[in-house]
Amino acid sequence: MATLKELSNKEILISSGHRACAGCGFPIIIKQALLAAENPVVVACATGCMEVCTTIYPYTAWKVPFIHNAFENSASTLSGVEAAYKSLSRQGKLDKKIDFIAFGGDGGTYDIGFQALSGAMERGHNMLYICYDNQAYMNTGIQRSSATPRGANTTTSPAGTESYGKKQYRKDLSAVMVAHEIPYVAQASPSNWNDLVTKVKKALAVEGPAFMNIIQPCVLGWKYPSDQSIELAKLAVDTCFWPLYEVEEGEYKLTYRPKEKKPVEDWLKRQGRFRHLFKPENAEILKEIQEDIDTRWARLLAKCGEEA
Amino acid sequence: MSIRVGKTGNEAVAEAMRQINPDVVAAYPITPQTEIVQIFSSFVANGKVDTEFVTVESEHSAMSATVGAASAGARSMTATSANGLAFMWEIVYIAAGMRLPIVMPVVNRALSGPLNIHCDHSDTMGARDSGWIQLFSENAQEAYDNAVQAPRIAENPDVKLPVMVTMDGFIISHAMEVMEILEDEKVREFIGKYVPENPLLDVDNPVTLGPVDLQDWNFEHKRQQAEAMRNAKPVILDVASEYAKLTGRKYGLFEEYKLDDADIAIVVLGSTAGTAKVAVNALRAKGVRAGMLKMRVFRPFPAEEIADALKHVKAVAVMDRSDSFNAVGGPVFVDVRSALYDVDNGPKIVNYIYGIGGRDVTPDHVKTVYADLAKIAETGQVENPLTYLGIRE
Amino acid sequence: MSVPKDAGWKDVPKAGRILEPGSAAKYETGGWRTYRPVHIPENCINCLFCWIYCPDQAILVEDGKFKGIDYAYCKGCGICATECPGKRGNKALKMILDEEA
Ligand SMILES: Cc1ncc(C[n+]2csc(CCOP(=O)(O)OP(=O)(O)O)c2C)c(N)n1
Ligand code: SF4
Ligand code: SF4
Ligand code: SF4
Ligand SMILES: [Mg+2]
Fold first, then answer.
1. A3 assigned to some structural domain
2. Does residue A202 belong to any structural domain of this protein?
3. How many domains does chain A have?
4. Residue A112's CATH number
5. Mutation test of ligand 3: which of C84, C88, C91, C95 has the most ligand atoms closer than 8 Å to its C-beta?
């Protein structure tokens, strides 16, 4: 376990001057993830807010080698980079330990880049894939993705007289990645920096592929005041909407258990995208959302061997 | 000293890949390219190459991983056909835009739909403006020779563009041919050591590749790309003359076959050139001054050179093995005609679309084209600017 | 190497490659700010929460201690002030209107 004092002696590998909205969550994720790395890191990133805000020519916020190829292929692009690394190392043309991290948004990961991610994980590349999950296509203006929570108002699942927002529950991508039987899968949150840093360290240390799903509050898409990003990340964890756990070689472990499991409403009511759910006619939906979280939480506790 | 062997086009290209010994290959099977992937896999399995072979789950990932590997600083290759090339589309453009010297054999096959696995050029022609250099081959020998020359062209510092080496599906890829290959050391010496530009794996000099490039800069970067394509022309010729010293086989931007004194000529790409030569010889025996121009380099398009080679001809037929569906003619026709636009009193020029979906083309078919040309040359009148050759009406 | 604004196509690296790591620091985002955080040293416990949570690397730390705020980049999001525990409930960072600074 690192202390912030120790971490603060390390160089932050993402610079100031990027164009993310004030209070955006993903720069915090980049900072924490790269602080965890012990070796030089090469990063690949999918099209989306992260890439667009950090690499506007002729400026880059990245202090590590960085490649953006397209929207759906950060996993396959990085698998090529990692293959090059293996090949050149084996031929004695390179003699250095390097770690590989791919970033993708929820759209680039859960949806359009899903196949490339699945392929890269199945092939066993020695890389960490981090999904920064802000729960919609933010870069193109807040459209729903399969990571968008049920009930959220997005520009393609708008709330209206005949609609309470997105109809479907979010896809449990972390579970899908566990089903790939890769050495390491984890969920993390930038609010719990220590947990996040520890998990990235583990993920980079394993031989073979690792996947981390990291919740990312988005000021614009979730609609909340910019100072509350970390509070909302923390509430997602404390309501058990976003449990913090890891799966190492198939073994589930809860890495943080909220002292008191808060009602999901505490999280929902602070975000403009869920405002309509608090109208009387949507009371049933709110109830169902709570029940869904309760069921998933109970299931997760059982998998982790925790008491209910 | 070269080695005489019997090989199919796919085997010849796989052999060239073995000799190039790329650091990374990422590829996905598709008929008629599949054998290349299979043969190359066995080279990997038997330690014949140093290559890291990435068995991707799709062509989109094949090109994506190849772009990643090339950006990392590895000599990188892939191979595909038709729908595979179409599935890569987005990244085909990105590979060129990122200026990565990737080499990709493309075994020509008809694009769906309806589904067809046989040869036409619709796949490669669709990618003609993707920023890739395109080398066409008449037979397995040429496919091999083009594949060996391709890395030298792609990696030239003034070029740094990806190269497609094409050959006709089945007609070349699956037909056994006696041909010559070079010794391994000769190939290695010829292509030389790979020196990557701004590689990602140089962690002491971190680069950002593929950034957001907006109105203030994108035009400049695209202009560089256009210049690189212009630069490619002399480089292709230099590499060819060096290769000729090694092998005795001469390559240019195109091959002129009995074109010097020709009154009528056809322009053709790929295996049909062999068929056309038979027709030309037969016509010449009868005293008809027939000639042929076989294109090797379709991109960069050698417009001035083609105009120069065809300017004295009375009537020219451009043979397109793909349709552009634009009612004016096929892609080769459109470019060749445009190249001839500034020639005073230049040839009459017509278009034949043929061989779609692997439809057979025989010397007799080609002879009917020459017969049409003879009439045009005589009358100066074009009746049919566009003919579908070998179609059932 | 940095790229002059008016450089022509012959004079810039290929393909939009950016050869200067962290060059975004040349682009100051401080002008985006409406509110600014101000530090109250007597309330500061040097927990560095502000540092680990600031999305813009605008909290400066030296020898494991809070050093200052880089207003050239601070976008005024207020995360640092919200997350600051301060001393006995008294925050060491508070947000004030930028023009009143
Ligand atoms: C093939 C393709 N389809 C669509 C787009 C348009 N597009 C760019 S970013 C984006 C959404 C990104 O969403 P996500 O991955 O969640 O990242 P975020 O912007 O939310 O950070 C879309 C739809 C694209 N660039 N490429
Ligand atoms: S839209 Fe959301 S994800 Fe995108 S930069 Fe703004 S806060 Fe960040
Ligand atoms: S969060 Fe507050 S108490 Fe902690 S270091 Fe920053 S200013 Fe000081
Ligand atoms: S207000 Fe936001 S940008 Fe400014 S120092 Fe605090 S956390 Fe950083
Ligand atoms: Mg998103």
1. no
2. yes
3. 1
4. 3.40.50.970
5. C84
CB contact under 8 A, B65 and A67: no
Strand-pairing partners, residue A133, are A215
Nearest CA to A196 among A11, A32, A35?
A32
Task: Tell me the β-bridge partners of A210.
Answer: A128, A184
Residue of chain A minimizing CA distance to C4: A58
Question: Is position A211 within any domain?
Answer: yes
Give the 3-state secondary structure of A194-223: HHHHHHHHHHHHCCCCEEEEEECCCHHHHH
- Mind listing the pLDDT tens digit of every residue in chain A (308 residues)? 689 999 999 999 999 999 999 999 999 999 999 999 999 999 999 999 999 999 999 999 999 999 999 999 999 999 999 999 999 999 999 999 999 999 999 999 999 999 999 999 999 999 999 999 999 999 999 999 999 999 999 999 999 999 999 999 999 999 999 999 999 999 999 999 999 999 999 999 999 999 999 999 999 999 999 999 999 999 999 999 999 999 999 999 999 999 999 999 999 999 999 999 999 999 999 999 999 999 999 999 999 999 98
Task: Provide the pLDDT for residue C66.
Answer: 98
CB contact under 8 A, B94 and A55: no
3-class secondary structure for A134-178?
CCCECCCCCECCCCCCCCCCECCECEECCEECCCCCCCCHHHHHH
Q: Which two tokens stand for residue B377?
A: 């040359």
Q: Which domains does chain C have, with CATH numbers?
A: 34-100 (3.30.70.20)
- The β-bridge partners of A251 are A248
The domain ranges of chain B are 3-247, 254-389
Report the distance separating Cα B296 and Cα B293, nearest Å: 9
Residue A21 Cα to ligand 2 midpoint, Å, equals 5
Query: What angle do helix axes A114-123 and B59-72 make, rounded to 10 degrees?
Result: 70
Residue B8 · residue B174 · CB < 8 Å: yes
Domain that holds residue A35: 12-303
Assign C69 to helix, strand or coil.
strand
Under 8 Å between Cβ of B287 and B236: no
pLDDT tens digit sequence for B372-382: 999 999 999 99
Report the topology of domain B3-247: Rossmann fold (3.40.50)
Q: How far is the CA of A194 from the centre of ligand 3 (A)?
A: 17
Whether pLDDT at B386 is above 60: yes
Q: Please check whether the two domains, B3-247 and B254-389, share a CATH topology.
A: yes
Instruction: Find chain A residues with C-beta within 8 A of C49's C-beta.
Output: 4
Contacts of B131 in chain C (CB under 8 A): none
The shortest C-alpha distance from C3 to chain B (Å) reads 11
**CA B28 vs CA A81, B81, B311, B359: distances in Å:** 18, 10, 44, 26
Q: Closest partner residue to C24 among A31, A60, A190, by Cβ?
A: A60
Q: List % helix, strand, coil for chain A (3-state, nearest 5).
A: 40, 15, 40
Q: Which residues, in sequence order, are CB contacts of B335 under 8 Å at separation 6+?
A: B301, B303
Tell me: domain B254-389, CATH 3.40.50.920, correct? yes
**Mean pLDDT (whole number) for B343-357:** 97
Interface-testing mutation among B43, B64, B71, B217, with chain A (most A C-beta atoms within 10 A): B64
Residue A5 lies in a domain: no
pTM greater than the 0.95 cutoff: yes
